[in-house]
Amino acid sequence: MGNIGTYRESSLHKTLKFRYSDTGNTEIPVGNYVCDGRSQTGELIEVQTGSFAPLRNKIKTLTKEESIRIIFPVIISKYIEVYDTEDKLLRKRKSPGKGCIWDVFNALLHAADLCMVPNLTLELTLLDIVEKRRADGKGTWRRKGITVEDKIPAAWHETVIINKPFDYNIFLPFNKTETFTVNDLCEKTGISASLARKCLYVMNKAGLTERAGKQGRSFLYKKNKPLTTNRNKPNMKE
Length: 238
Prior knowledge:
The protein is of the alpha+beta class. Helices cover 20% and strands 36% of the residues. Mean pLDDT is 90; it is low at 1-5 and 228-238. It folds into two domains: 1-163, no CATH class; 165-228, Winged helix-like DNA-binding domain superfamily/Winged helix DNA-binding domain (Arc Repressor Mutant, subunit A). Strands 1, 2, 3, 4, 5, 6, 7 and 10 form an eight-stranded mixed sheet that branches. It contains six helices and ten strands, in the order H-E-E-E-H-E-E-H-E-E-H-H-E-E-H-E.
């Protein structure tokens, strides 16, 4: 039957799983769960390319006894290659979209409580990918029948490591006495208003920020004290 955990596994997921796990130490059964791998230091590895919501119960249960690292790929640049059914390259292009570390709040939107879970490390891996598509007539109408077949890592950039609640400060470029709005966050970081709202929704839900009144029709936010008392900073490495 094969391993259900690797069924239709993308090259992106598979590459990250082996990159962060000890050699051959993948698909690890732990209690009622199976994790993607275990590192050389004994840390459990979970690769998640979408929402963290399906992981909530698993992470909360396993972190009572184990340390876990969630690997989340941030797609900085995407190159699209379209092939026909005979595997002939029809065309290729670079997608105009560009990712950033704030994309992680799309994944945290329905799992904000994971920001506060002990024994959990979140590692954002910034990379470029090639998205391989097939003109087979089986894809959605939005893609005019073209199927997304695989996502393949093409280039690696730095990583951002979040070990503790304080480390989420990297997403809030304000000092501890400042109040700020969604628009202020957009202006400071260059992210969209939609992404800024998701960021502050997650931060507020997790207790990392709180509302501090209003400025006109906009809510004001401020960092909570537990977020600013720890002097450690998140790691960034090549």
